[in-house]
Amino acid sequence: MDMERELNEGKIRLLINQIRPHFINNVMTTIRSMIRYDPDEAERMVYRFTQYLGYNIDALTGTELCPFSMELDHIRAYLEIEQAHLRPRLRVEYDVAADDFELPPLSVLPFVENAVKHGIAPKQGTGTLTVATRETDAAYVIRIEDDGVGFDVTQPFDTRGGHGLGLNNARERLALMVNGTVELSSAPGQGTRVCISIPKLREEDFDENDIS
Length: 212
Prior knowledge:
Helix content is 49%, strand content 20%. The chain has helices at residues 2-18, 21-37, 39-61, 68-86, 109-120, 163-178; strands at 66-67, 90-96, 102-103, 127-135, 139-146, 181-186, 192-199. The two termini are 31 Å apart. It is an alpha+beta fold and 212 residues long. The protein has one domain (2-202): 2-Layer Sandwich (Heat Shock Protein 90).
């Protein structure tokens, strides 16, 4: 029961963190500008933003794991919105070699958002964000990497503005629900890499009869 309550409270905190007034204002400003010079693209952005909000609400009300393909589509929707806002300053690359696995909803997006907001957005010029997946014998691995401004990992992580809260919440939900682990590496001026590992065999998969 404690674990269930912790997960539910975590989902609520995560949803509140996802739907930020600043982000919504940026989206609405971008769409308003598009309406004048590219109404078709503005319509597509409204659709993607609707998808983005709907997925967030579903993540709050749902209790099950979701396919990675669904999480990936949510990531794509978010990044398309940010690309429309940041224009050519944000380049996105996908290298998805594995997608047949499940994970907690909204457990990868916070790391993607952090890469955009705190890695690439403050960078001068164009930055590239890469979302990649691989399957090993023991686990599924998701890599989120950017060539943004980076930070000193030896310093306490700044939770002002809520971005640290979102990352810690995602890390906790990955650990509690799928025994997932998160490894982060970064350095000032050299970008940031996050590797999420989801083991194929979890505690609930063990059969006592198989243990000799």
